[in-house]
Amino acid sequence: MESGKQTQGAARLALIGAAAILAVSLVYAAMRGGKEAPGPDPSPSAAPAESVDAIEARTRAAPTDPAAWARLGEAKFVQRDYPGAVAAYERAVQFDARAPGYWSALGEARVMASEQDPMPPAALDAFDRAIKLDAKDPRARYFLAVARDLRGDHDGAIADWLALLEDTPPGAPWEADLKRTIEQVGRIHKIDVASRIAAVRQPAPSIAAQTVPGPSAEQLEAAKGMTPSQQDQMAQGMVASLEAKLKADPSNVEGWLMLIRSRTVLGERDKAAQALRDAVKANPGAKAELEAQAGVLGVR
To answer: How far apart are CA 153 and CA 190, in angstroms?
Structure first.
């Protein structure tokens, strides 16, 4: 799977719009064949000039802001400065150890920064921490299956990837690459996977997701060339639209969960906490469900 600016921003926006999960970056081919990830080379000349500089300025202005450090980690990863990405994500989890996406991103950066071990213990630790916070974190699930494959448990790895596919909404940014990984590993180890992939029943889009205006295919394509600030602006517009829908229909519990997760993805934990309070006030009967789901994200 491509692991660069071209897919990172678009995948992130798609998942905010669908109220799903943080983007998976599938770098299995890079792990098996070297550190050169497939896809276009996100060279410094291709990256927005303000990207890293602006985010680094944000970390200097707010040195304890985990969202700023996470964005710096993303920018460093895009430039294939994997040690720099590791350092930034380590600061992010230092200031917010409750965000599973930060941990799984740190694990991925540690994998790519490793010169010798394709799955260093520190990366496994980060993925384990992510899973403990969110058992559904797709990036952590993917890489933990990679670890099984590297240990020689190819059947177990394929089973884990198939389970991830079962939880993958149709059209998710990582869907095609996940299937391709399963097919490639099956082919390498002479394991028939075609019928098993065909038997997978992926979840139907939720009612709430269907009513929220996520990005169109054209918008996702345009997002590939956007700067991080432009991507944030698009994401904020989508979240604002969701908030407007919830004002019109505050009984939509799934929509509130969508808003809480989206605010968390954007690093806006105060707004996520306020959304939880508003959701409970509007739906006192769903208080336990709302607090449990928000608690997984570290929102209280």
So the answer is: 13
